[in-house]
Design brief:
The protein is about 40% helix and about 20% strand. The protein is built from 18 helices and 18 strands. It has helices at about 10-20, 70-75, 90-110, 125-130, 135-150, 150-170, 175-180, 220-235, 255-270, 290-295, 310-320, 325-335, 355-370, 385-390, 400-415, 445-450, 485-490, 490-505, and strands at about 1-5, 30, 40-45, 50-55, 85, 190-195, 195, 210, 240-245, 275-280, 300-305, 340-350, 370-375, 420-425, 435-440, 455-460, 465-470, 475-480.
């Protein structure tokens, strides 16, 4: 248990997230209590120009361990002095506080973090922004090392991905202020959520519902969704630059419901004119030849078949009702039917899996030769059973190491796949990252857009988010739909009204 005591909570979340990175799984209190591992006390002076930070520690953290990079050492030389801050500049103040806290925690624990003081989900966005401002790649690398204490490997990965993203994003038209009111050009992307799955995985916190329990309301859900799609097409135009159907698992729908959905989607929007049209087939146990024929019929150009692991004991443990052999069969079936852009998702850090298990997965995936591969580090989300039933799973080791991450990267590159997008999540195993790899020409543009927030994305369906990027203002307007399927159906007029307000309609 860790204490955080602040006289001003403006930066409490930033402080807590960095503490969580150093001490995963700990709970936090806001008072000095017996049994604390350590307690951070922060005082902001009345003029809001100085922030003094004190870390009180007990037990094993009884002395500072010196020996750091020059930038870290400069911070440690002044670790007990107040930090000059400008509360009108949130980014600069946040970085100053996190820099100081990072080097103190590193000195206390003797352990650094691969991403240094960065706790946000979009580290590549920093590099992409600097590239767009004309900074050279080597200078960006040095900047991230100096300002955020990122490791050599992570800084270089970030810059490599940002440079690739910049080239891929150049393929898309840019939104202009005039197109905000007259959306007839390809200046937005479309995400459609189908929040149903065959079962709910142990680690999952997405908006997804077991399909068997909702069969009687699927048609009602589609009716509501179609109303939302009609409104977006009417106001945003029929020409999205990318289309992504996710979930959940869209192919958990029956072939009949999937046909009805795809016919509506493609008649409402010009999906054939999009740069890419993705449908997550996701769970192999949801894929049939009939459903793949439906996807082919309506012009889907990219699908995902996501095993997460190719170890049967782990699949059984995490609640996926399919076998390793079924993964192979469905993948080869999709290839046979002409799908030439297939992604596979994997998770590193699944319960009880070690480096040998991950290597077995990578070898099995390598034999299938997907066109793209996304390697996730397990993030234990608040709503997942792995967290809500923590006592039940407390003896399940979560193993995430730099060596394992390096091994997945090595296999990906051996398959001819290049890293093209990256993001992070809270409570990730090993404090690492998720990386998407793809063959040249097979990168998912939508993934870059959603991560780097470079284009407006309209989300339709339960649990989706619309992000309207305001050109020239470095600002994003967000509108969310409710996650609960029953509420989405019953409140669809309200969900459309939320978007109507975004458009400024009377």
């Amino acid at each position: 248990m860790i204490g955080i005591i602040l006289n001003d909570n403006a930066y409490e979340q930033d402080i807590r997230e960095l503490l969580m990175a150093f001490f995963p799984g700990r709970s936090f209190v806001h008072e000095m209590l017996p049994g604390l591992e350590l307690c951070l006390i922060g005082d902001l002076d009345e003029s809001r120009s100085w922030f003094r930070m004190q870390v009180v520690f007990w037990g094993e953290y009884s002395h500072l361990i010196w020996g750091n990079t020059p930038a870290e050492q400069r911070e440690l030389d002044h670790f007990d002095e107040p930090i000059s801050v400008d509360y009108d500049n949130r980014t600069e103040t946040k970085n100053k506080i996190k820099r100081r806290l990072y080097v103190i925690l590193k000195a206390l624990t003797g352990q650094g973090l691969p991403w240094g003081s960065l706790t946000g989900i979009r580290p590549a966005k920093i590099a992409l922004t600097l590239l767009s401002e004309g900074m050279e790649e080597e200078a960006i690398h040095a900047y991230m090392r100096e300002l955020y204490f990122t490791s050599e490997e992570k800084a270089r990965l970030c810059v490599e991905i940002a440079a690739r993203e910049q080239k891929l994003l150049a393929l898309l038209p840019k939104e202009t202020s005039s197109s905000r009111k007259n959306r007839l050009n390809k200046d937005y992307s479309l995400y459609v959520g189908i929040p149903f799955c065959p079962t709910t995985c142990l680690y999952c916190s997405f908006t997804s519902y077991p399909i068997e329990k909702w069969t009687k309301r699927i048609s009602e859900y589609l009716d509501a969704l179609f109303q939302e799609l009609d409104y977006v097409a009417d106001r945003a135009g029929r020409y999205p630059s990318t289309v992504y159907v996710g979930g959940g698992t869209p192919t958990s729908l029956s072939a009949e419901h999937l046909e009805r959905f795809m016919e509506k989607l493609t008649s409402t929007f010009d999906c054939t004119g999009a740069v890419e049209f993705t449908v997550e087939a996701g769970r192999p146990d949801s894929i049939t030849r009939e459903k793949l024929l439906v996807l082919k019929k309506y012009g889907v150009t990219r699908i995902s078949i996501n095993p997460q692991t190719m170890n049967q004991k782990t699949l059984d443990l995490i609640g996926r009702r399919h076998t390793v052999e079924e993964v192979r069969e469905r993948f080869l079936l999709a290839r046979e039917m002409g799908f030439d852009n297939i992604n596979m998702d994997l998770i590193v850090g699944l319960p009880k899996e070690d480096a040998t298990d991950v290597q077995r997965t990578m070898e099995a995936v390598q034999a299938l030769a997907p066109d793209s591969l996304t390697v996730h580090s397990l993030a234990i989300k608040r709503a997942s059973r792995l967290n809500t039933m923590r006592d039940t799973y407390k003896d399940y080791p979560i193993i995430g190491t730099q060596e394992i991450i390096d091994m997945t990267a090595r296999y990906a590159r051996e398959m001819g796949l290049e890293p093209y997008y990256l993001y992070r999540q809270k409570n990730m195993a090993g404090n690492f990252e998720n990386v998407g790899y793809a063959k040249p020409g097979k990168a998912c543009i939508y993934n870059i857009l959603i991560m780097e927030e470079q284009q407006t994305i309209f989300g339709c369906g339960a649990g989706t988010t619309t992000k309207w990027v305001i050109p020239g203002e470095n600002r994003i307007e967000r509108v969310e739909t409710v996650k609960n399927v029953e509420q989405y159906i019953d409140r669809i007029d309200e969900m459309i009204e939320r978007k109507r307000m975004l458009f400024g309609d009377e």
